[in-house]
Amino acid sequence: MGRKRVWAGVLGILLAGPALAVFKCVGSDGRVTYTDGPCAADSRAQAVEVPPPLTPREEAEARGRGERLLEDARELDARRSAEVAERQRSQDAERRAEVQQREQVKEDAEHWSAVYPAAIYGRRWPSVKPVQPKPKPVQKDTLGKMNAYPFR
Questions:
Q1: Among residues 62, 56, 55, 52, which one has the least CA distance to residue 20?
Q2: Domain extents in the chain
Q3: For the chain, which has fewer Cβ within 10 Å, the N-terminal or C-terminal residue?
C-alpha cells in the first residue's frame, strides 16, 4: 500500500509540473498569447511565474469566501427584487386611486347634471363687453375768432 501512494504522489507531481509552466508569447504583430507549450518561431517568449498550488486549507477558505459572496449576491438580488415589486405595487395603487377619483368626478358631474338640467347647467352667459365712456363734446371757441377782427 505504501508503494502505491508513493507512485501516485510522483505521478501527480509529474503531471502537475508541466501545467505550472506558463509562457507569455508576444508575436511580431504585437499580439499577446499565454500558453503552457512552446511559443511560435516568430514570437518572443517570456516565462510567467505561477503561484504555487493552494493547500487544502487555503482552498477550503477560498471556497468558503466564494460561497459567502454568492450568498450575499443572492440576498442582494432578492432584496432588489422585493423593492421592485413593492414599487410596482405602489404605482398600481396610485393608478387605481387616480382612476377611482376620475370615476367619482364623473359620477358627481352626472349627479349635478340631473339636479340642474342641461338647459340651465350648461347655459353659457353672453360675454360682457366693457362700456367705453362717451367723449365730452368740444366747445368751439367763438371768442377767439372775434378777437381777430379789427373792428372791435
A1: 52
A2: 22-51, 55-112
A3: N
The answer to whether the CB of 23 falls within 8 A of the CB of 45 is yes
Using alpha carbons, select from 116, 15, 94 the residue that is nearest to residue 86.
Answer: 94
Does pTM surpass 0.70?
no
CB 21 within 8 A of CB 36: yes
pLDDT in tens, 59-74: 999 999 999 999 999 9
Distance (Å, whole) CA 80 – CA 114: 51
Q: 111-139: buried (b, 16+ CB within 10 Å) or exposed (e) per residue? A: eeeeeeeeeeeeeeeeeeeeeeeeeeeee
Beta bridge partners of 23: 35, 47
Strands of 11-103 (E only): list them. Answer: 22-26, 32-35, 44-48
C-alpha cell at 18: 508541466
